[in-house]
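Our preliminary data section would be incomplete without showing what the modeling component actually yields. Below, a chain of 109 amino acids is followed by its predicted structure, encoded as tokens that our downstream tools consume directly.
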Amino acid sequence: MNDDKNNQKQFFIDTIAKFCDKCGSAYSVDDLELIQDTPISSIIHFSCSNCKASHIATFLKPMGVSNRTPINTDLEVEEIKKFAKREETSTDEILKLYLYLKENQKVRV
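Predicted structure:
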């Protein structure tokens, strides 16, 4: 099982990015975390072990196309995985929250 995951991570390194965009260090399988993996797409978190720069890549399996975006966040990989599984927030939910915050100057948790 571990060999399969490492082979999959190596495939993503070979296909998406072999080197860090920021410092040029080579990625290893230890620098990647699979955030989400479905039959259609994969979301991969790249983290440079040298300079700590992070990227999130989306790989569309049927087309073999990828898109990589640098991220600046304080979220850990586990938190990103957690939020990636959540349903999208509707515009009605956003509007309700906006109206609530507008009416309530002090919000207590």
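DSSP finds three helices and four strands in the chain. The mean pLDDT is 88. Preliminary results of this kind motivate Aim 1 of the renewal.
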